[in-house]
Amino acid sequence: MIISLAAYFIAMLGIGLYAYKQSTADVSGYMLGGRSLSPAVAALSAGASDMSGWLLMGLPGAMYLFGLSKVWIAIGLVLGAWANYFLVAPRLRVYTEKANDSITIPDYFANRFADNKNILRVISAIVIIVFFTLYTSSGVVAGGKLFENSFQMSYETGLYVTTGVVVLYTLFGGFLAVSLTDFVQGCIMFISLLAVPIVTYMMLEQPVLDTLANASYDLLLSAPKESEVHSLNMLDWFAGGSTIAIISAMAWGLGYFGQPHIIVRFMSVRSVKDMPSMRRIGMSWMTLSAIGAVLTGLFGAAYMIENQMLIDDKETIFLVLSELIFHPLIAGFLLAAILAAIMSTISSQLLVCSSSLTEDFYKIYLNRTASQTELVLVGRISVLLVALFAIYLAYDRDSSILDLVSNAWAGFGAAFGPLVLLSLYWKRMNLQGAISGMVVGAGTVLIWIYAPITINGESLSSIIYEIIPGFILATIAIITVSLSTAPPNKEITTLFDEVEREL
């Protein structure tokens, strides 16, 4: 297994070196790859950076514990990604290029609304840095768990090894390195998410449906308190779930409209004419990968029941199956798939944070006349600093990967989702509305998660997923404030009309 992983690490670093020589001379090349990605690379890069360690660990773990009642998350995500490709991708690609060649999401917001005082730019950059640091730490946690469970290394060593390799190729190769490694990592993830459930199914002796319909949770769960909660039919899509719970799970799909590390891929594809190809490739990859993750959790549960085995950390079911069923060389490849998922997302998030720190703070407030070389250097230093802080947060080894991702996903979805959609489709939207929507969306999510408010003894986030109230209230704030303040000036509306004509 170590040989397979070593080969994988060398390949990723080699891609980083190649990208370093190709596209890091200026900020546009370092941060956006010069808007030159092919549809296949852009699609798999978007998918791999989206489907982080939670796809191979968090989602299978949820399916293992709760059965098909958690499949609504996967369904919501697939529908959300499909809508994102249709509603956001083409318009954002055209708009960001026409809006003074915007290369970051805060840059686009500032140019779209003529934010001369940089209020919107700074607020959006703060939102990106805060929520992406949480999101990045979820990937680092997954890396620590991988090395601890599979290679008997300490959890802390796993944090540094995982982050170290990502930082090296991101530091030097920039966006092109991240995108090319994402493409390779996406292929590895795709093969692994099909291979593990198929082979696990072939290893089962009893009919899998009968096993799951009559699951003995004493065999699945090691903690008595869990067995009291989960005595449910694993094949029941509605088991223990109210209508609100199902809506909350599917609401994950709303988050796609506001994820900077995903929608920035739409900005980097070489032409808007490539969007249909990018959409077909991306959605095929995502749909099959999500099905594979769901079946990994279900078939893994059946395998554990049949063999009367227990695992302490349910989010490691993919790891356990890889080591139990496959030859060590193949298992090493499968474990590399988890690293691929983890590293692809960490690298994307590090680069987005780096671009915000460089373009939206350093260049605006510290050195407006900074050379391209200086800005690239600042970007690299920012990558390192954000990575170190993410490691610090990940030292809490009890952190749930799915919970960390859930909080960050909701934050971006509520703060940026309504803003991105309305900015692309509503000419009357103005700067005041944009600022209000972003503050209300992000604030609602933070209150929903951290405020000491309960209803019948339950926290707000346990009743309904925080992205729903955040998204709704942000949309209302944008529309209300925009209509009650002065309309945008002629320059902004003219730009909007130019984009409409090109599309």
From TrEMBL:
Membrane protein topology class: Multi-pass membrane protein
Source organism per UniProt: Pseudoalteromonas arctica
Keywords: Amino-acid transport, Cell inner membrane, Cell membrane, Ion transport, Membrane, Sodium, Sodium transport, Symport, Transmembrane, Transmembrane helix, Transport
Similarity comment: Belongs to the sodium:solute symporter (SSF) (TC 2.A.21) family.
Purpose of the protein: Catalyzes the sodium-dependent uptake of extracellular L-proline.
Gene coding for it: putP
Protein localization: Cell inner membrane; Cell membrane
InterPro entries: Na/Glc_symporter_sf, Na/Pro_symporter, Na/solute_symporter, Na/solute_symporter_CS, Sodium:Solute_Symporter
Protein name from the UniProt record: Sodium/proline symporter
Cell cycle listed as a keyword: no
Main location: membrane
GO molecular function: L-proline transmembrane transporter activity; proline:sodium symporter activity; sodium ion binding
Gene Ontology CC entries for this record: plasma membrane
